Amino acid sequence: HEPMRLSHRSKDAVDGEAKSEHDLLEDLLTQSYPIPIVGAPGTGKSHLVCWLDAKLKTTEGCDDWHIIRIPKAASFRQVLELLLDGLDDKDLDETRAKINKIGQELKVDQVANRLISDIKVALDDLFEKEDVQLKKLYDTNPELVNPEQKSRHAFLKLHAGYDGLDALIGDSTFKQRLVGKDKCLYRIAKQFTQGKKRKEEDDETKISMIVQSDLSMQASDIHSFSSTAIKYITSAQLMSPQKQSEVVELLNQLLTEALHKTALHLYQVDGFSDLFMHIRRYLKSKNRTLALLIE
């Protein structure tokens, strides 16, 4: 380990204050709020988290801490198992057994196809939420509705619904661009179920992002698509690279919520928040502190 130069910046501050990794360790020991570590790829964020993990486990006064480090290569099942690791609460035995059983049965293509379904649901939920908010604003004070809100609403309305983006990503032919072997959602599903291999860890964009080439198409490509998908491509002008880029950005925005929905459905657990609360209640009853380090 080499000394690191860090910059500590408050939420609304423009400039940061020079700090060391030892200052960060001191903050972890004395503060109770989450501390995000941000920086460009390759700047040592994961190494810093590993260093903190090692230091906390040997720091005086941390004997009663329950320290969990979640590596960036962890699958969702591994994350859940790590959260439960070392806890003897018998109330968690059923959850632990369920996670183990379902995790062993999950197939990569099953998760990838589930992600397609949950992206559709996430989009419809997003549009419904924005639609309600905009209508409420029109009813109370229409002068507050700005052009950006109108444009956003029109954009989501174009792509939401069964005859929108749903028709394209649900099309049996087009869908293979996303869920076929080694395609984006297949890779995400593989990481979700199996974790990442070491050689994959350095290329997080390849693993976790839909890219424009996934949507790129020529007129000759769409003949095998359903009539509803073709109609959507025409109305959304998806032969245009600019429009493709907009839809790619939207899909990537929806992925986080889709992954959450997929996790809750496939693992049939109450979700991270409830699991955290259960763990924290257990640790509090034992006078222990939860320290969660996420690469």
What does this structure look like?
There is one protein chain. This protein has 295 residues and is mostly helical. The protein has helices at residues 21-30, 45-58, 76-84, 93-105, 108-140, 147-159, 165-169, 176-179, 184-194, 204-208, 227-235, 241-267, 272-285; strands at residues 6-8, 17-19, 65-70, 289-294. The strands form 2 sheets. Strands 1-2 form a two-stranded antiparallel sheet. Strands 3-4 form a two-stranded parallel ribbon. Helix 5 runs antiparallel to helix 6. The two termini are 17 Å apart.
In a few lines, what is going on in this structure?
This protein has helices at residues 21-30, 45-58, 76-84, 93-105, 108-140, 147-159, 165-169, 176-179, 184-194, 204-208, 227-235, 241-267, 272-285; strands at 6-8, 17-19, 65-70, 289-294. It is mainly α.
SSE map:
Blueprint: E1 6-8, E2 17-19, H1 21-30, H2 45-58, E3 65-70, H3 76-84, H4 93-105, H5 108-140, H6 147-159, H7 165-169, H8 176-179, H9 184-194, H10 204-208, H11 227-235, H12 241-267, H13 272-285, E4 289-294
Parallel strand pairs: 3-4
Antiparallel strand pairs: 1-2
Helix pairs in contact: 3-4, 5-6, 5-9, 5-12
